[in-house]
Amino acid sequence: MSDTGFWATVGSVLASLFGVQSHKNYERDFTRGTFITFAVVGIVMVVLFVVSLFSFVKWYAG
Question: What DSSP letter does each residue of 39-51 carry, written as one string?
Answer without folding.
Answer: HHHHHHHHHHHHH
